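Session log. Operator J.P. requested a structure for one protein chain; no other inputs attached. Running the standard single-chain path with token output.
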Amino acid sequence: MKKDKKLLTWREAWKLNRRAFALIYKRCPQMIVSRLICVAWDALTPYISIYLSALLITELTETRNSTVLTRLVLVILISAALISLAAAFLHKWRDVACAGLYYKVQQIFFEKMMSMDYPDADNPKTHEMYNTIEQNRNGGGWGLNQVYGHIERILSALLSLLGGVALTVSLFTSRVPDSSGGYTVLNHPLFVLLIIAIMLMITCVAPMLANKAGSYYALNSDSHNLGNRLFGYFGFLGFQKNLSEDIRIYRQDLLCDKFSKDKTGAFSSKGIFSKLARGPMGFYYAASSAISVLFTGVVYVFVCLKALGGAFGIGAVTQYVSAITRVAESIGSSIGIMGDMRNNASFLKLIFEFLDIPNRMYQGSLTVEKRIDRDYEIEFCNVSFQYPGSETYALRNISMKFRVGERLAVVGMNGSGKTTFIKLLCRLYDPTEGEILLNGINIKKYNYNEYMSVFSIVFQDFKLFAYPLGENVAAKTNYVESKARQCLLDAGFKERLQEMPNGLNTYLYKDFEENGVEISGGEAQKIALARALYKDAPFIILDEPTAALDPIAEAEVYENFNKIVGNKTAIYISHRLSSCRFCDTIAVFDNGRIVQKGSHEALLSDETGKYHELWHAQAQYYVHS
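Structure written below.
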């Protein structure tokens, strides 16, 4: 959101709020219903007390009938008890229905992120959009979380208005006796209309001024978000364990001084919001409060004059003052809420821009054949690829074929196209040109999720969760323990597994479990390898699978590689050329092209080839001269 943006029109704001409410209601219908019923109850029941209190005061100041007074007191006590009891039940129902509301709303974004095409999910602009949505919500509370609050408040205001009007109508229709002299002017229709007009004007102007003040937050949300981001980063650097050594050794805490001592920051004394508070925003808020006080004065003068003129008794004064004050509050609240809804609509627009990101990748419909012999063949046919927004090709004219059971190594320098090759193979992206075939059929024609199930991958930047070890291996809560244990053994995790206090039920890390265990990078890599084995897919792809292992553990993995992989097709990406010797075929990538392909011995014998150059560039660090 930019500083020079304008508020949306009322029509646009209404459409966005209506759509947002429908979205939340579809997800949480019981939550919405329970909240609205509670709002209706809380808005209307106070008028029962106001009405009964007025009757009681009237009886006390006029007839003073003890029997009637006793009945009124009993009715007031019993009604108050029943209203409180019903309110307690309704609020409990509402609280239960609203449990986990934050996560239910958050689930909307999670599901969208998981369902969108991977190129969009991988696009930095998408993440920037989502981060802005989060900043809007966490910083100013803007977005979906405000919608149901607005609906509650507008319903409460309207019901309060109806109840107040019902108890206030007689204020304007009750006549001052003709014998009251000058007070009879209060009966004149023009005077009554004038008073109503003054009250409505004051009632409307006050919230409109408050809305104007609040709009400055919406119009400057970019500065608000930047201030929150800076605070979220610099304000908590010292609490990040992974940075503690660098911060202490290099005194990087001093870098935070620029932020903490900056008086021109968004929320600092010389920042934009401080200037607005001293200027227009502060003026509008102050004017709104002053005008609200004026209304109270007008109400008291009008009601008291009519009472002095003999239009009604002292008990009615209590009723009218309370009721008309609530009417004014309801009108003012309605106008204020509508202004808030308009301000919030700008943030809803961004949310729906995110949720409306279209899926363009063809999902396919063919079923991937579940072959018992796992006889699959993958073929790249003159495949080229450009990342969205890029003018250069990441891959150019790639043609190759490999079958089940083969061991393929993909090597090359950084930026040579190795990872892009894997992304296309797994159909995270579709080729810009050419096609990829599975058993002779374009992979686009296969059901997308079924095709993805053919691959097990250990990414270089894999993630493990702070869940039990077994659940990390199986990637599910219900799993076969014997299978998970065997996969860990095959991945070289035997000794560490024996040390786990609760075996497969041992939590990794201490995020949620005090007795969780911390694991090293190499141990995490073995768990990730075990996870790939547990999936038991025909193709297993290993992206630098031994990067975090020590030389002994790495040698162990290589020695047992054929046993670990079994009859699966293995695609191995590595910078360490020595680890590729056990592969059947090595594909050498350079500048997005396959420049060489063959066995280790054949490629090494070509002294003019890229593989020979890379091999000897690495070997010089291990061979003594």
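Operator note: The domain at 10-355 is CATH 1.20.1560.10 (ABC transporter transmembrane region fold).
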